[in-house]
Amino acid sequence: MCVAVVGVMRRPREGERYERLRRRTNAKIQEEVLKLKRDWLKKKTGNISFIDLDPVLREGMDFLPDGVHLNEAGNKRMCGRLREWVRARSTVCVDAA
Question: What's this model's pTM, rounded to 2 decimal places?
Fold first, then answer.
């Protein structure tokens, strides 16, 4: 199984210019990932699977005060979602530890 995890995490504000650049960059990454997903859905070729991790995190509640790194609750939810995703695509038994 080939896995690609793409996520753009928020960063603390560092001024207006930085925010504009960050938003533009995040939008471009999102556009490219969606394009990749649309192309794959049309052809269904290759060993690609997509996982959306954004719904797992609660806005502003799952991060440390720096706004970048996940806190313990955020890490647990993220790991739980990744475990579900692996189990759903695994051909071998994945034990819950």
Answer: 0.53
